Amino acid sequence: MKSAKAGLISLACLSLTACVNLYEVNFQASKPGIELVPKVGAGLEVVQLPIEEHPLAVLDRSKNFTMLGQSRFRTSDTVTARNLEAFSKKIGAEHVLSSKQFIQTRTNLVTRFHHLHGMSARGWVDGKYTNMRMDHMEIPYQAQELVDVYEFWATFFQKGVRPPVLP
Q1: Closest Cα to residue 137, out of 160, 114, 157?
Q2: Which helix (H) or strand (E) holds 124?
Q3: How does DSSP assign 39-90, residue by residue?
Q4: Which of 52, 113, 125, 162 could form a disulfide with 138 if both were Cys (CB 3.0 to 4.6 A apart)?
């Protein structure tokens, strides 16, 4: 039962663009060729901080950690702590600075559907007794909705400072 439920969730994610991990899509590695692999048994520490404190915290952490890279994006889509944790583990991050800031509320145009139930009828048409049937229908229409836009910024680190790579 549990695997069937997981399969349905996976199928739903494949059909929806909302399942894209925006931390992964917007990731910029700090250096070309940096090792981005999970570390077995490594713990993950996520530090939430205001966005204006993020740059100074990155400089401070760079003294004791190796920066893997950053993700920075604006969106009105749902971004969860699970998205951040999953991507952090995928690239082997052990320490993450995370910031979120409200930017604006805007109006989006979205497509909604109105459901018409099916119906059946019997009666005389052109002198013949006839059965008529109309199937269920989904009628699309445009609607406006208000959405909040947030800026997300995450910086990913591994513990320890690596010596610089010589050319």
Answers
A1: 114
A2: strand 119-125
A3: PTT---EEEE--GGGHHHHHHHHTTTEEEEEEEEEEESS---HHHHHHHHHH
A4: 113
What is the phi/psi pair of residue 60, to 5°? -65, -45
The per-type count for the chain, helices as H runs and strands as E runs, is: 4, 7
Taking CA atoms, 34 is separated from 26, 30, 138, 151, in Å, by 17, 8, 50, 26
Interatomic CA distance for residues 167 and 151, integer angstroms = 36
Distance CA 4, CA 10 (A): 10
8 A C-beta contact, residue 22 and residue 80: no
pLDDT tens per residue, range 113-137: 888 888 888 888 888 888 888 788 8
DSSP label of 162:
P
| Residues forming a β-bridge with 72 | 153
Kind of pairing, strands 95-116 and 45-48? parallel
> CA-to-CA distance for 44 and 59, rounded, in angstroms?
19
